[in-house]
Amino acid sequence: MEEWVGGLWHKYITRKASSNYEHAAVQFADVSHAIGMVFRALGGDAVKRVEAASGRDYIVRRSFLEKIAGENQQISLAWQDDESLRLPETLAVFPTTELNHDLYIWLAVLAAQHDGKFRHWAIDNQALVVKVLQRYPVLKARYQRLAQAFIASRGDHSKRPKAEQLMEQAIRQAILQPGSVTEFPTVNYAPQAVYLWLYPSAQVDPQVLPEYIDDEEDGESAELSKAKKSDSTRKKAERVDTGDDKEGMMIFRLESLFSWSEFSKLDRGTDDSDDDEEDNQRIAEDLDKITLSNQQSEKSARIKIDMDLPSASEDDLPLGEGIKIPEWHYKKQCLEADRCLLQPMLPKDAGPKKLPIKLQKTAKAIQAQFEQLRSVRYWLKGQQQGEELDLPAWLDFHVESKISPTEERGHYRSFRGNNRDISTLLLADLSMSTDAYLDDNSRVIDVVQDSMLLFAEALHSVQDSFAMYGFSSVRRSNVRFTLLKNFNEKYDDIIRGRVQSLRPGFYTRMGAAIRQATKVLVEQRSSQKLLLILTDGKPNDIDHYEGRFGIEDTHQAIKEANKLGIKPFCITIDQEAQSYLPYIFGSNGYTVILRPEQLPVRLPQLYHQLTSQ
């Protein structure tokens, strides 16, 4: 009975205290696609994620009812940083759905024209609004509707302190007449949220970063790898001192216990297993604030990561001392020389092997298709001798000779075979994600092996020049570049054995691997050079290469390859590739295989299409 009455009271007081129009609410998830298109079409950063923002602390003067209901302690605002644009999860600030929808679009337009940095929040927002309205006059009517609705939604401030009244007047004037207000009073509380403007980014307190980050890495290496999660909103973090649970008496009052939303002690550094990983993920999504203890024993997490490397006796065979490779630093907009160390390697225990029986029938069918490339023939026109008379050339000569003396030309056509002057390098992603199972019998790495074998069988049948390499990485100092076949090697059972001995590696530092593959291709003398990249995910590593850094570096590596006359093309089985591959490879530079089990057949077919145009 008490719970039922309490539930009714909570609903009543929350409804009375809320100033939102729930009946007109618009969810970010329903408009995220349109927002992303507007943001990028108007000049927003192509690789920034457009995601929902969770609530953040916003110290505003609250009414008596809001204090009782616990409302307005956290507010979801619009902001952006170098990685993403964050917009409120829900907008219900206006009485109509159309206005709330227009507000989302307006915020996306503002963000596209702003660099994310503020010197004076209110003055800079005014200047930004003026800039947008001057550049896109068609938005003036929409902005005026939003501005009028914004003024109408503001509460009564007549009983507030004088300074807060002056602040509210200044904000209203700045909204109605952008650029007209140059001074704002100082107040003790933040003004009521201005949803028509952008806010400074929600920076993470550096004190919450773990102390076991490698000091030798750049500042960006302090960016933690984020686990894939269903909830896209960010959580607030704070660090607290952990108590010593081995000493002292256990004295407490029941009413002083923390609730789940207030404190959760996560000691991931001393876990013996990850059996409860899914439960921890679910719990983290339910929390408003994640609190981490400053516990020194968590340094074991670094040891756990580094021990992903195999022992020397179980590792592949290194070739030489390694090759220094540059890497693109997108924040500095420069290519840093000798940034990565790439280690060429040979697969361990790779003895000669025949083509697996399960692939032999498919290989013959693909080879029959590729025979068409050999049979393509063409006419050479205007020849001195040939199989047939070149009638158009003879008529031109005949007409011209009647007008004036004309030099003798060839009047024949010669039938010639197709001359395929092309070199192709297939670069396969061998990261740890390829160890994932597609079904009860096969993993991603198995599909990759079958694809490379059928690809090699097809190209060998038409005598096209090709090479095959694999890659993975563990930080920038260990980029593994596995040799399967170079351009000078004959394709035989030794090569087949290398491919069949492939094992899942580590991470995906794609930029360094592409630069080395480009270097290998440049040395070939063929007129056409094709770089095929086979992957199952986006560029990433356990240092700063995670996120935008890896995407920008790979994009730059592709630009470098294009300038050298190489045609890169990416084949991926990543279903989320549409969010980053168009930026890296261009709209026509990649394809997504929706059913990974089709990859072995689709890869040779794609090569056929790319080289027969």
UniProtKB/TrEMBL annotation:
Signal peptide span:
none
Q: Where is the composition biased (Basic and acidic residues)?
A: 223-242, 280-289
Residue intervals of the VWFA domain: 423-610
Specify the domain of life of the species encoding this protein.
Bacteria
Q: Which InterPro entries does UniProt cross-reference here?
A: NorD/CobT, VWF_A, vWFA_dom_sf
This protein is called Nitric oxide reductase NorD protein
Q: Where is this region: Disordered?
A: 216-242, 266-291
